[in-house]
Specification:
The protein has about 280 residues and is mainly alpha-helical. It is built from 8 helices and no strands. It folds into 2 domains: about 1-105; about 120-275, no CATH class. The relative contact order is 0.11.
């Protein structure tokens, strides 16, 4: 079974890289047939990622989200399916190129982490593990889409501002489409992020007798939540849109990255089990 799990992961890496390459070819050629092929390959990657996670669940006997390798694979899985669900309802020009490259980077990072199985710590032996950790990383998946959209917005705005319409201008969607993408992904991600914090608090009460004890990862999760809360509040009260929203999406994602990796390796705490 471990060999099957290994082969599944290698297949996920290969198929996802092929999907990213196909999207890059489409970005250059703008051939719609290639885009359709790239999307189908990414869908296959999403299915293989699901099978890989399921096989690790069978091998470990618990939700495979307690190591850096597993957390990053789950992050890639969440981003893949968040994009595919988004693409099912909306079309944003060449968005898949950026997202597929991002997913490939996540999987490459996960391949550099240890794939060994570790015994589940007593504090993690709870039904709240898949609920809290799963919901939180699904939030990261949607918010990573907002990050990719934010990067595209800033690149497109730069070309428009310079009035020198270069290579990217004709290949990027309008600023309005990117702003709407940002809003959609931010709203969905914020809902899941809030649920992640609430379920984490309930779990903490059950495990340690208190809803909150200012562990570094808890603190940074709250900081991240406030970053996105400020963006949503400002958007719907004073009309923060466009460039400000794009920049805030990038800032918020930087906070997510620090919460996921920086806290684990630099600050420690009770959540550093994934180290």
């Amino acid at each position: 079974m471990e060999e099957i799990n290994y082969l599944l992961f290698q297949s996920v890496l290969g198929i996802t890289f092929i999907a990213a390459a196909a999207y890059l070819v489409f970005f250059v050629s703008q051939n719609k047939k290639i885009r359709k092929i790239a999307r189908m390959i990414l869908l296959v990657s999403g299915v293989l990622q699901t099978l890989h996670i399921a096989s690790r669940f069978i091998l470990a006997g618990h939700t495979p989200i307690t190591s850096q390798h597993e957390a990053v694979v789950f992050f890639a899985w969440a981003t893949t399916w968040a994009y595919l669900s988004f693409r099912w309802r909306y079309t944003v020009k060449n968005f898949g190129t950026f997202v597929s490259i991002f997913i490939s980077c996540l999987l490459l990072i996960s391949s550099l982490s240890s794939r060994e199985f570790s015994p589940l710590l007593p504090a993690l032996q709870s039904i709240w593990l898949p609920i809290h950790a799963g919901v939180s990383i699904i939030a990261y998946g949607f918010l990573s889409l907002a990050f990719c959209g934010g990067l595209m917005y800033l690149l497109q705005e730069r070309e428009l501002k310079s009035k020198k319409f270069g290579y990217f201008f004709s290949r990027f969607p309008s600023l309005d489409a990117l702003d709407q993408l940002n809003n959609h992904c931010l709203t969905a991600g914020f809902v899941f992020l809030t649920l992640g914090i609430v379920t984490g608090s309930v779990w903490a009460r059950q495990a340690w007798g208190t809803y909150w004890h200012w562990d570094p990862k808890e603190t940074w999760s709250l900081i991240t939540w406030f970053v996105y809360l400020v963006q949503l509040h400002q958007r719907y009260t004073v009309g923060w849109r466009g460039k400000r929203a794009a920049v805030m999406a990038i800032v918020g994602f930087a906070s997510i990255v620090f919460t996921l990796w920086g806290v684990t390796y630099l600050l420690g705490g009770v959540h550093s089990y994934a180290k």
